[in-house]
């Protein structure tokens, strides 16, 4: 009975908050929460195991194709990250160029400073290479993200099951789901609700095995951004506003997708202003990182839209309201025989379907709005279409309903589904980095 023992231990020291809808969130507090193996150890072990399989698969691909694992882990934007970490923005070698082969003094400013500067700090340790620092940082950041992902999955599952009748399709159909669960589960819950802890752990595996989850192990920003985003969302849901504000500030220094998280945190803080001064602190903190970096690029380029100009001219990224995405999906599914193109198109379609499911299942609104707007922001922009599976990774929160569905099934079903997901993710990441020439 390890599950119940762990839950009982955690329950001995808890704190509770009540949100605007009257829902109560109980969370472990003090040393008990820190030491609870179910809270920290299992999510980290699962995450690292999945990522180890992915990296091992990539290593095998590179070996068979005469490549280098280190080169694959630092490919494409990774080279920019390592160069900024080692030399700073003004010292990046001119061998680095944008997608059109062009380069000037402003080109490196297309990349936000959070991740490369963090890598640079670690690389300053004697005996640590820049690539070694980048990989080590992402191992730690991935572990931190995994703990937050498990906690977020459990919290969402609990809230979705506790809503009163009539407030969501999920709760309105519990009776029918209970009858189905009697056929699937060895020990079904009398209410049909899955164990939130199990939901969280399955959610960790789905996160680590996302289609381009390999970037979580590369010299890329995804591990840092996802860690910051998930803890910011937890801060909102648990009404820990200083945490939410600080995490969002950091996300704003990491990548432009943070604008979505900033909007969610600021709106949530405004709606919860009765919580006290901490909501206003979060409201002010949230946009500072993003605005601050845009101001730095403004100073560098002399234009308030300097960053957007660099990005558009160098990488062709601009808002076209989904025209490029629509054309790409239609072309790939009808005309292409290339595995990478077809798979990317289906991943894009599947992500839109996940948005529909998340709306149908009534995810807690901050999580739903964040995930939906990430998908909208990526789908509505132009640029290299093959980078879509990577760019959509921060929308991993939309996998919560899938984790809940799997948590209702028998352990055997859970195992083979998750093994299949990990295998496909490992193959896809390795294929995109070593076989397809223009992946991410």
TrEMBL record:
The keyword Glycosyltransferase applies. InterPro entries: PIG-V/Gpi18. Pathway: Glycolipid biosynthesis; glycosylphosphatidylinositol-anchor biosynthesis. The chain crosses the membrane at residues 40-59, 130-154, 199-216, 279-298, 339-360, 367-385, 391-408, 415-436. Keywords: Endoplasmic reticulum, Glycosyltransferase, GPI-anchor biosynthesis, Membrane, Transferase, Transmembrane, Transmembrane helix. The keyword Lipoprotein does not apply. It comes from the Bacteria. It is a multi-pass membrane protein. It is found in: Endoplasmic reticulum membrane. This is Mannosyltransferase PIG-V. It comes from Williamsia serinedens. The lineage of its organism: Bacteria, Bacillati, Actinomycetota, Actinomycetes, Mycobacteriales.
């Amino acid at each position: 009975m390890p599950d119940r023992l762990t839950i009982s231990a955690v329950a001995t020291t808890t704190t509770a908050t009540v949100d605007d809808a009257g829902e109560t969130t109980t969370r472990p507090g003090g040393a008990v929460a820190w030491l609870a193996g179910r809270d920290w150890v299992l999510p980290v072990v699962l995450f690292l195991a999945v990522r180890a399989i992915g990296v091992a698969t990539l290593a095998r691909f590179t070996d068979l194709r005469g490549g280098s694992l280190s080169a694959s882990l630092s490919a494409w934007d990774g080279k920019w990250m390592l160069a900024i970490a080692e030399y700073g923005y003004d010292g990046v070698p001119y061998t680095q160029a944008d997608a059109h082969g062009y380069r000037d003094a402003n080109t490196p400013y297309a990349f936000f400073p959070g991740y490369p500067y963090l890598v640079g700090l670690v690389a300053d340790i004697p005996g640590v290479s820049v690539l070694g620092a980048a990989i080590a940082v992402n191992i730690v950041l991935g572990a931190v993200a995994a703990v937050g992902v498990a906690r977020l999955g459990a919290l969402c599952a609990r809230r979705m099951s506790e809503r009163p009748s009539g407030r969501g399709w999920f709760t309105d159909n519990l009776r029918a789901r209970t009858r189905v669960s009697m056929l699937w589960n060895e020990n079904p819950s009398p209410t049909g609700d899955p164990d939130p802890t199990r939901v969280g752990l399955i959610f960790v595996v789905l996160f680590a095995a996302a289609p381009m989850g390999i970037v979580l192990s590369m010299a890329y920003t995804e591990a840092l951004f996802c860690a910051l985003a998930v803890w910011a969302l937890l801060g909102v849901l648990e009404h820990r506003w200083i945490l939410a504000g600080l995490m969002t500030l950091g996300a704003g220094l990491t990548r432009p997708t943070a604008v979505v998280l900033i909007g969610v945190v600021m709106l949530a803080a405004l709606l919860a202003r009765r919580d006290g001064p901490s909501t206003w602190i979060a409201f002010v903190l949230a946009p500072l990182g993003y605005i601050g970096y845009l101001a730095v690029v403004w100073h560098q380029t002399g234009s308030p839209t300097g960053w957007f100009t660099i990005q558009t001219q160098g990488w062709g990224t601009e808002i076209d309201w989904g025209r490029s995405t629509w054309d790409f999906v239609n072309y790939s599914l009808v005309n292409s025989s290339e595995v990478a193109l077809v798979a990317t198109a289906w991943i894009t379609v599947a992500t839109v379907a996940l948005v529909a499911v998340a709306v149908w299942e009534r995810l807690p609104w901050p999580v739903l709005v964040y995930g939906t707007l990430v998908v909208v922001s990526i789908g509505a922009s132009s640029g290299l279409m093959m980078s879509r599976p990577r760019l959509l990774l921060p929308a991993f929160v939309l996998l919560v309903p899938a984790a809940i569905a799997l948590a209702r099934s028998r352990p055997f079903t859970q195992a083979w589904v998750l093994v299949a997901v990990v295998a496909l993710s490992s193959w896809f990441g390795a294929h995109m980095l070593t076989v397809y020439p223009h992946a991410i």
